[in-house]
Amino acid sequence: MSRPRRAVLNVVKSLKHPAQPQLDRPRLFPPPEARTETKTAKAPVEQPSSSRTASALAPDGVFSPTVWASLQLPSPPSLTAFAHRVGLANVLTTPEAVQQIFTHPSFVPYFARYYPEEKTLASNAALSNIGNALLGLFAAEHLHATYPHLPTRVLKAAVSAFVGPTTCANVARSIGAPALLRWRRSHATLKQPAVMLDDALASVSRSLVAVLYRERSISAARAFVNSMFLSRELDLRNLIKFRDPKMALRETVEKFGREPPKSRLLKETGRLSNSPIFVVGIYSGLDKLGEGFGSSLKMAEYRAAEDALHRLYLTRQPPHLLQVPSSTFLASGLDIFGLPEEAEYVPGAIGETEVLYGSAGKSGVRAVSYRSQVPSEVQSEEHDKDGRLLI
Amino acid sequence: MIKIRPLLKSARTYATRRPERPPLKIKDPLMGPGSSQHSLDGGKFTFIHRKPPTAPSPHSYITAPVSPLLRPPSQPSAVSSPSPLPPLQRPELPKHNVLSEAQIDEIRRLRAEDPQKNTASQLARQFGCSSKFVSFCAPLPRELKKAALAEREAAHVQSRERWGEKKRTVVAIRQKRRSMW
């Protein structure tokens, strides 16, 4: 339908400005060399563009524009622009290096099927693997050093939230990866899992981390992960769920060797109205462990128990004192067991493990923290030269 | 001619004050006891700190943890009498008497003998302890426990079938509220 309209336009234009030459000839798609079957046999090797268009023919000789479009690799200027956009122009120096990051392994056999004479594309499978391992390492040690008292299952959930497949895909979207990504969708088979867009996008951000590790150092990779992944906002309270927070608190307080928790009513209003508010505090002896509000006494007590456990689990290391174990690896070179010249590594506090349920009373030796045992008058609060508390 | 207007006994000649609600006496939270002022730099600046009215955040640093479990327990100071603690939400339960080993063995024997007659509550009354303690000391074997739970569940299902629309709605609302605690 567009062709007749264009012809009319051209006629109108020529009538308006008869002296001007006609520059916008209607351009036909697909290119003429693709429209006949005989062209495939005659296509010479030194004309890659025409051979590409020519070989985008299905075996039965019918040209498919969608197949042709999906086989087009990203242009070198766009790849270079990406490298500059991410701030890694000095690391990703050639368009081929960037191309590898954006080639998902599902695309390689698909491309080879239509262009068998072309060089096999390098995929990001190995890079993605290494990058995934590095992301897991950095996130786990960062979270463990930041929140020493966090329960294991919450730590695992937080690591998934920070560097999991969905997050990796979202980070890739934020840096403009979908336009440059080359992949092929596939359903799950007995041998392989399904390949969806999120999986392909996640491989891009993982590959970036691996490239930084390979080209520069583990410190550079860690700095990249800190700025792109670990600086994201996440409220850990949503990941800490309890089946019975009062029971969990009772067992935790027993583990710390304190008096059993007792709930006390701090404030209340409108008890007999249709919208009462109660504020309940849970005390262990004279210490208030947690506080909660609710429209019923039970609800307020439930929230107070949750708050008491949140206060314990979400105690974090100050950011300026945070040190992770992988910082002890040498910045460059193959020998990672030498000591770096930077400041000595001071390990963070070891937190109390969380109570375990269903362990038939065999949840281990009661590990009471030193500070909770010794009264404050006897214990001397010593600080080292950097102001950190010595246990 | 002078018109004499008869006095209307029911009409008053002065305005009355309608009973009004007294004005609300809400204390300004910014001027309350949670506010403190400090002069800095020799009086050039005033640092005003106002305690937020909301509940304290659970986030804290290791160097100053907000959880008392990570600090030594506070001792009752004999010098100054502290303010009394808020009242307990539920009264202290009476302490049950401590049973000897022989009594616990007897409980186990009776329960194994006839769980239908010697129920947990019946044994609790007999020995002067709580029924939870009896269930803890002398639990039923797995098959019998499953059978008892199934019987109880069947009775509950039967009573739930007799509920009307309103009862079902109220219970559903309550369950939804409970899930959002």
How would you describe this structure to a colleague?
Chain B: Residues 17-28 have a biased composition (Basic and acidic residues). Chain B: This is Required for respiratory growth protein 9, mitochondrial. Chain B: InterPro entries: Ribosomal_mL58. The complex is a heterodimer of chains A (391) and B (181). Chain A is mainly alpha-helical. In chain A, 42% of the residues lie in helices and 7% in strands. Chain A has helices spanning 2-16, 39-42, 48-55, 65-71, 76-85, 95-101, 107-114, 125-146, 152-163, 165-174, 197-215, 218-228, 245-255, 297-313, 370-373; strands at 262-269, 277-284, 287-294, 315-316. Chain A has a 3-stranded antiparallel β-sheet with strand order 1-2-3. The termini of chain A are far apart. The relative contact order of chain A is 0.08. The relative contact order of chain B is 0.04. With 181 residues, chain B is mainly alpha-helical. A two-stranded antiparallel sheet of chain B has the order 1-2. Chain B has a domain at 101-180. Chain B has helices at 101-113, 120-127, 131-137, 142-161, 165-179; strands spanning 35-40, 45-50, 60-61. In chain B, α2 packs across α3 (131-137). The chains are: A mainly alpha (391), B mainly alpha (181). Chain A binds chain B through residues 148-149, 237, 252-253, 256, 258-259, 262-266, 279-281, 283-294, 297, 299, 301-303, 307-308, 310-312, 314-318, 321, 348-349, 369, 371-376, 379, 388-389, and chain B through 55-56, 58-63, 65-76, 82, 85-90, 181.
Fill in the keyword field for this structure.
heterodimer, A: 391 residues, mainly alpha, Ribonuclease iii, N-terminal Endonuclease Domain, Chain A, Double Stranded RNA Binding Domain, 3-stranded antiparallel sheet, 15 helices, 4 strands, B: 181 residues, two-stranded antiparallel ribbon, 5 helices, 3 strands, 8% strand, flat, structural constituent of ribosome (chain B), Required for respiratory growth protein 9, mitochondrial (chain B), Ribosomal_mL58 (chain B), ribosomal protein (chain A), structural constituent of ribosome (chain A)
